[in-house]
Structure formats: structure tokens, C-alpha cells
């Protein structure tokens, strides 16, 4: 009789937790499925029911980390009560606050996950594109509410990404943790928002 789906999900979560513990102790390159299975008290053949390969195990760990970021951003964008300006601010702060909390909770695991991600460029690129799309949607709403020219939207998103790299790139958070504060992020966001609004006023002055 097949095991209930809820049991399978719980067992998979247990295996992922074991893998994360090994990950922060010895790095991603040394983890093996057989070691995870041994600690979990199951046969090596049984663990393949959950992860057909070590690459699949790594993908699940990284995807779980990325999904936490993306689900929060999705909730921000789908919030009907927030203005575009508020969403731009919340999108930037969400990335900082979640990644900063992860680092503070377990710096070793945070760095180990970064190492693992560095060997999975396709997953990272998909995650970056997902974040870009959420940020673009927040900025699009901000542009609409402030009657900004839509042809400048792409440049504005790129500018926001360049300006906030300290607060969204996990490598920077790991190296410059004391600088990654909400106060600094909010000051930068204020500067960005004010600059975008002023640019529209200047365009109106040039083109009466």
C-alpha cells in the first residue's frame, strides 16, 4: 500500500533538513545521497524515491530558499491596498529583510547555500528573472500612478537594481552585514523615488 502523500512530504522535508545540516558542516561538494540516507536511517535505494540524484537534492534545497523570497514578493504585488510607490519600497525591503534574517539565523548555512547556488546558474538566473518581473510590476504601478513616461520603465527598473545591489545580493549581505540596515535602504529608496518624480517634472519643463 503506497505511503500517504502527507507522509512522503514530511519525510522529504526531514531529508532536506538533514542535507542542510551536512551542507553547513562540510559544503555542498562533499554531500552524498548515501550519507543523507544513512543519517535518516533509510536505505540508499529508498532515498532515490525522493531525490533521483544529488543534483535533484540540491535543486530542491535552492528552490525552497528562492521560493520563500518569491512568494513574499508575489504577495506584495497582489496586495490591492498598496500603492505603486509602497510596493517598490516593500519589494526592495522584503529581499533585504528576509536574506538578512537568514544570514543572522545561521551564517554558515547562508554561505553554504551561496556556494551551492554558485554551481546552479540556471536556477539562479530563473530566480533573478522572477525577482526582476516582480520589481518591474511594482515600478509599472508606480509609473502609472505618477504619470511617468512608460518608455523609461525599463531604465528605472535597471537603476533600482543597480542602486539596491547591497540590499539584495546575498554575497554583499554576507560581507557587509552591518551596512545592510532598513534605515540605509529606506534612505536609498527615498532618493530613487524622488529622483524618478523629479525627472518627470524636468521632462515637462523641457516639453511644455
Mean pLDDT figure: 90
User: How many domains comprise the coordinates?
Assistant: 2
Secondary-structure element series: HHHHHHHHHHH
Got a strand count? Answer: 0
Instruction: Specify the CATH class of the largest domain.
Output: Mainly Alpha
Bulk shape: elongated
Category from helices, strands and their pairing: mainly alpha
Helix share of residues?
over 70%
Q: Estimate the strand proportion.
A: under 5%
What is the correct CATH architecture of the largest domain?
Orthogonal Bundle
Number of helices: 11
Radius of gyration: 21 Å
Give a quick rundown of the structure.
By secondary structure, the chain is mainly α. It has 11 helices and no strands.
SSE arrangement:
Blueprint (H helix, E strand, L loop, with lengths): L4 H22 L6 H8 L3 H4 L6 H25 L5 H22 L1 H12 L2 H25 L7 H11 L1 H4 L1 H6 L6 H25 L2
Can you walk me through this structure?
The chain is mostly helical and 208 residues long. The protein folds into two domains: 1-52, Homeodomain-like (Arc Repressor Mutant, subunit A), CATH 1.10.10; 58-206, Tetracycline Repressor, domain 2 (Orthogonal Bundle). The protein contains eleven helices and no strands. It is elongated, with a radius of gyration of 21 Å. The model has no long low-confidence stretch (mean pLDDT 90).
List keywords for this structure.
Tetracycline Repressor, domain 2; 208 residues; Arc Repressor Mutant, subunit A; 11 helices; 2 domains; elongated; mainly alpha
Amino acid at each position: 500500500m503506497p505511503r500517504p502523500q502527507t507522509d512522503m512530504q514530511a519525510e522529504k522535508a526531514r531529508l532536506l533538513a538533514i542535507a542542510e545540516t551536512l551542507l553547513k558542516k562540510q559544503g555542498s561538494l562533499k554531500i552524498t545521497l548515501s550519507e543523507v540516507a544513512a543519517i535518516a536511517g533509510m536505505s540508499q535505494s529508498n532515498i532515490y524515491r525522493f531525490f533521483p540524484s544529488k543534483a535533484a537534492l540540491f535543486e530542491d534545497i535552492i528552490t525552497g530558499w528562492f521560493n520563500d523570497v518569491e512568494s513574499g514578493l508575489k504577495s506584495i504585488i497582489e496586495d490591492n491596498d498598496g500603492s505603486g510607490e509602497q510596493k517598490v519600497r516593500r519589494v526592495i525591503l522584503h529581499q533585504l529583510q528576509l536574506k538578512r534574517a537568514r544570514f543572522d539565523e545561521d551564517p554558515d548555512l547562508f554561505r553554504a547555500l551561496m556556494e551551492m547556488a554558485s554551481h546552479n546558474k540556471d536556477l539562479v538566473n530563473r530566480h533573478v528573472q522572477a525577482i526582476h518581473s516582480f520589481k518591474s510590476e511594482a515600478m509599472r504601478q508606480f509609473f502609472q500612478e505618477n504619470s511617468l513616461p512608460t518608455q523609461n520603465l525599463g531604465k528605472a527598473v535597471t537603476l533600482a537594481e543597480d542602486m539596491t545591489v547591497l540590499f539584495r545580493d546575498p554575497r554583499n549581505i554576507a560581507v557587509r552585514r552591518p551596512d545592510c540596515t532598513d534605515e540605509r535602504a529606506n534612505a536609498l529608496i527615498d532618493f530613487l523615488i524622488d529622483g524618478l518624480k523629479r525627472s518627470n517634472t524636468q521632462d515637462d519643463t523641457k516639453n511644455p
